[in-house]
User: Which sequence fits this backbone?
C-alpha cells in the first residue's frame, strides 16, 4: 500500500500515514511494536509537535491542511 509519512516524537511515540486504496493513519506508543489505527485517511505530510497536537497535509487538487489536538 505504501508509506506516505512517518513522524516519531520520541523513542516510543510515533505516527504513520499510509495506503492508497485503504488510507489509514496509525499511532504507536511502544516504539513500533504495535500500531493502533486512528483514522481512515492518509496524509502526504505530517508533523506532530506533542503527543496530542499535530498538523498534516492531504494532497489534493487544492491541498488540505489538518490540525489535531487530541491524537
Assistant:
Amino acid at each position: 500500500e505504501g508509506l506516505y509519512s512517518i513522524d516519531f516524537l520520541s523513542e516510543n511515540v510515533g505516527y504513520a500515514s499510509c495506503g492508497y486504496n485503504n488510507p489509514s493513519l496509525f499511532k504507536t506508543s511502544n516504539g513500533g511494536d504495535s500500531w493502533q489505527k486512528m483514522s481512515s485517511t492518509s496524509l502526504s505530510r505530517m508533523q506532530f509537535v506533542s503527543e496530542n497536537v499535530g498538523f498534516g497535509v492531504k494532497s489534493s487538487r487544492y491541498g488540505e491542511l489538518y490540525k489535531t489536538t487530541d491524537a
In short: The two ends are 23 Å apart (CA to CA). The CA atoms of residues 16 and 53 lie 15 Å apart. The longest strand covers residues 3-8.
